[in-house]
Amino acid sequence: MTFYSEHSKVWVSVDVIIFGFDEGKLKVLIGRRQMDPGRGEWSLYGGFVAADEGIDDCAARTLQSLTGLHNLYMRQVGAFGSIDRDPGERVISIAYYALINVKDYDEQLRQEHQVEWVDINSLPELYSDHNKMVRQALRQMQQKMHTEPIGFRLLPQLFTLTQLQHLYEAVSGQEIDKRNFRKRIKDMDFIEKTELIDKLTSKRGAALYRFNKRAYNEDPNFKL
Amino acid sequence: MTFYSEHSKVWVSVDVIIFGFDEGKLKVLIGRRQMDPGRGEWSLYGGFVAADEGIDDCAARTLQSLTGLHNLYMRQVGAFGSIDRDPGERVISIAYYALINVKDYDEQLRQEHQVEWVDINSLPELYSDHNKMVRQALRQMQQKMHTEPIGFRLLPQLFTLTQLQHLYEAVSGQEIDKRNFRKRIKDMDFIEKTELIDKLTSKRGAALYRFNKRAYNEDPNFKL
DNA sequence: TCAAAAGTGTTAGATTTACACCCATGA
DNA sequence: TCATGGGTGTAAATCTAACACTTTTGA
Fold first, then answer.
1. Among residues A25, A83, B80, B106, which one has the fewest Cβ atoms lying within 10 Å of its Cβ?
2. Element housing A64 (H / E)
3. What residue spans of chain B are helical by DSSP H?
4. CB nearest B48 (choices: A4, A81, A94)
């Protein structure tokens, strides 16, 4: 195959912004870069796109090698390709963001990869243009979050309305009125109240809810 | 430089979705592919990213080589990188969309490049995954159009409110109530009525308006 | 004189926002 | 018994959507 041989090739990598929700805060998984150049700097987790691998596949593989999880919610943020974005060589990177339930992430795996959950509002300076990637990913995720029921991917299967509200507050960065919030939830039949009660975070106990995907597909009206 | 030499490189190209508004319709500039594989198929205009060129620069260059225009409004749509998206070889392509005023596009240049304005609702099957790119570009542009004053890039500097309304109808694909539309326009001080009258499209004549960027920057409240 | 596009306000309904108190329980 | 978080409704304000006729003028 020589169709395009007059043109030059470049390295393409993938970087993943992994969002988690813990301690009432939106967090991102970052670690110390293990490779030159920039070894030791705070960085997103990433990897190179192989010759025989689609970019979405590469992102999924990268994500799984870090978390051990698959079928995570994942979306492309975009391509970053300034000529000198990488201090080593010319690399174009495609950013993806993913949502995981922090509790699903095996603590041992986390330590092996030497990554940490860091509050998105307290991020250090990251390698290359990774801060920019995070900002863009956050903006895109915020938008989606208000029009599609993706927030549940950041929570356990069973959650209280207070948890859900705090999640939305953490992501959007604004306070939400409790009564108005619960009113809107009540209108969405696919957010189902269960019989179960959570007694961990309050003395009185709070009803646990569940997102019913099937019901959502039948009547996909989501707006928060 | 050998930091990443164990990894393989790939070809990266850029494809541009050029939107124009003409005859009351939203149109896209497409042409017959001049290169193998796929020679002769309908296709977006594109080009390869050079080794010493940022991807945004590449898109701007590609856009200018086709239109002769610069400083066009342009945004990245995203990266497309399925393993077999290109029938020839493995190429990752980054799509961009751009907005131009059809009247600014030199007819001779258009013919030289053998590209045509085609109604977005009557697009033929395009090369590779270009139809998908167009769909995604349209969706993104629609969203932006309702929150940022980018529509004016598709119109002459002076335009009538009817033109503006038809533009929004063409982009969103829905009819808009004339009186409600004009009411909302009146609330935006940066859409200025001029003394000039357009007598081409109506006997009575319609007032010509102008988008005042300076005024917009002082009070950027746009919502349509 | 008539066809064609420009221009102009009002009202009902829907949505959004603001706001404060009682409840249940474990410590 | 009291501190903590859970749970609930109403009213005002704002925004949205529906709707029809008069004006101007060139053909």
1. B106
2. helix A55-67
3. 55-67, 107-113, 130-147, 161-172, 178-186, 213-218
4. A4
* CB neighbours of residue A212 within 10 Å: 15
Q: Measured between alpha carbons, how far is residue A101 from residues A18, A22, A27 in Å?
A: 10, 9, 11
Q: Please state, in angstroms and as integers, the Cα–Cα distance from residue B12 to each residue in A61, A94, B205, following that order.
A: 21, 12, 50
Distance CA B95, CA B172 (A): 21
- CA distance readout (Å), B64 to A80, B18, B70, B144: 21, 11, 6, 23
Residues of A with CB under 8 A from a CB of B: 1, 3-4, 7-12, 35-37, 48-57, 76, 78-83, 88-92, 94
pLDDT mean for each 10 residues of chain B (224 residues): 92 98 97 96 98 98 97 98 97 98 96 97 98 98 98 98 98 98 97 97 97 97 95
What's phi and psi for A85, nearest 5 deg?
Answer: -65, -35
Give me the CA A44–C1' C10 separation in Å, rounded.
57
Question: Beta carbon of A180 within 7 Å of strand C?
Answer: yes
For residue A51, the chain B residue with the least C-alpha distance is B8
Full-model pTM: 0.97
- Quick check: A219 pLDDT over 80? yes
Percentage of residues in chain A having pLDDT higher than 70: 100
Query: H or E segment at A98?
Result: strand A91-99
Length of chain B: 224
What whole-number distance in Å separates Cα of residue A143 and Cα of residue A140? 5
One-letter identity of residue A118: V
How many whole angstroms separate alpha carbon A79 and alpha carbon A12? 10
A210/A221 Cα distance (integer angstroms): 16
pLDDT tens digits, one per residue of A132-182 = 999 999 999 999 999 999 999 999 999 999 999 999 999 999 999 999 999
Stated in angstroms, how far is A110 CA from D3 C1'?
A: 37
A81 closest CA partner among B65, B48, B82, B71? B48
Neighbouring residues of B100: CB distance < 8 A, sequence distance ≥ 6:
B18, B19, B20, B67, B69, B72, B153, B154
The neighbour count for residue B49, using CB atoms within 10 Å, is: 29
